[in-house]
Design goal:
The chain has 404 residues and is an all-alpha fold. It has one domain: Growth Hormone, Chain: A (Up-down Bundle). The chain is 77% helix and 1% strand. The protein is globular and about 50 Å long. Strands 1-2 form a two-stranded antiparallel sheet.
């Protein structure tokens, strides 16, 4: 009797994706640490620097679906390797930018390059190479990589800026992207054979775009972008308004990153045991409650750290949950394109959260209206997930083909 071929090991792929996402998202989520130093060095104004950062986030989102299509032609190894090199160049260019035009151009270049290392790309690569039973846990591990990156880069970035200046910190971040580029070789592993849900057998992207459920998930993720980017970009400014030093901003972001790891892994575990739509609704509701409590209570170091703990547990939990529900509805093979479109909407929210936060601060000197908008949007995001009926489309995630 002929022996069955052994399945290719998938954990090297998962860990490589987690490592690349840690480096890419760690450097990106720490941009808020650079807003004040760049503004101080260039005197461009908080609104202008915020707009440049927001333009990079928007460019990143716009490039995600294109990177998904590019991956179909060129393969994940080439796309992610080139993306890591180009992202490193983008950070180096940012370190020598002085005017508004050059600053924005560097941010946009870095955003487009970073799309090749975005969560849609890396999670789609993993989804196609992991057995169905391990998919939720693998998504949690990859998402935790992003959280670990924020933990490390926020602490290291704050220390480097304090000791050597913001330009040296950006160059150090660029060097880590170069060092991580060879991880792309792990993606040579072949995809596993899967049976896709029935909805994905014919023009799945076009079908998804016509379904209200897809846009409910996407609208929620757009709110996630508004919330996350506002916090990562402007919490250092909020902390400064509280009279605390910049090093506390690094600590705040590090606490969020540490809690993100637990939240991401917890989401990966829970999505195997509960309806994903209810988990997503709960995450957004918890965010709304956390922000409402933060703005209602008097500021203090203890409150700020408690806020970091609360928000960190929900911060990146939406990533495995959103990819999970899209893969459940439309299939893992289409995840790069479909989640790329969803992530592009996420980045529109990121653009608005980053830019409008800078505008309000420059006009009023605080973030009062942004906090209120955040509470209302997070509440709406919780509500739009409740009508979803994920079980009608597919009873579970894609399952392996039976052996012949």
């Amino acid at each position: 009797m002929r022996a069955q071929p052994r399945a290719a090991p998938f954990w090297p792929v998962v860990l490589a994706a987690a490592g690349l996402l840690a480096v890419a998202m760690g450097s990106r989520s720490s941009m808020g640490l650079f807003l004040g130093p760049i503004n101080g060095a260039t005197s461009l104004g908080a609104a202008t620097v915020s707009l440049a950062i927001a333009a990079g986030l928007l460019a990143w989102g716009a490039a995600l679906p294109l990177c998904g299509l590019w991956e179909k032609r060129a393969g994940p190894v080439r796309v992610t390797f080139i993306g890591a090199i180009a992202s490193s160049i983008g950070l180096a260019l940012l370190s020598v930018s002085e005017g508004a035009a050059s600053l924005t151009a560097a941010m946009v270049f870095g955003g487009v390059s970073g799309a090749a290392l975005g969560a849609p790309m890396l999670m789609a690569v993993v989804a196609q190479r992991v057995p169905a039973g391990r998919y939720p846990l693998a998504m949690g591990v990859v998402s935790a990589g992003s959280s670990a990156g924020q933990l490390l880069y926020s602490m290291i970035g704050a220390a480097l800026i304090s000791a050597f200046g913001w330009q040296a910190a950006l160059l150090a971040f660029a060097a880590t992207l170069l060092a991580a580029a060879p991880l792309a070789r792990m993606f040579r592993a072949p995809p596993v054979a899967v049976v896709e849900p029935a909805a994905s057998e014919s023009t799945p992207a076009l079908r998804a775009l016509r379904e209200p459920g897809y846009w409910c998930v996407t609208a929620g993720f757009c709110v996630c972008g508004f919330h996350v980017s506002f916090l990562t970009t402007h919490m250092p400014g909020v902390i400064e308004l509280c009279g605390l030093p910049p090093t506390f901003s690094g600590l705040w972001l590090a606490v969020v990153g540490a809690c993100n790891i637990a939240g991401s892994l917890g989401a990966g575990w829970l999505m195997q045991r509960a309806p994903i739509r209810l988990l997503l609704a709960a995450v957004y509701a918890l965010r709304a409650l956390g922000v409402a409590a933060f703005i209602a209570l008097p500021p203090s170091q203890a409150l700020l750290l408690g806020f970091a703990l609360w928000m960190g547990l929900t911060y990146m939990a939406t990533l495995p949950l959103t990819t999970g529900i899209l893969a459940r509805l439309y299939g893992a093979r289409r995840l790069a394109v479909l989640f790329g479109i969803t992530m592009a909407m996420h980045q529109i929210g990121s653009f608005l959260g980053t830019w409008l936060g800078g505008v309000e601060f420059q006009i009023s000197g605080d973030y009062r209206w942004m906090w209120l908008a955040d509470v209302l949007l997070a509440t709406a995001a919780a509500l739009v997930h409740l009508p979803l009926r994920e079980g009608d489309r597919a009873p579970g995630l894609a399952k392996p083909l039976p052996a012949h």
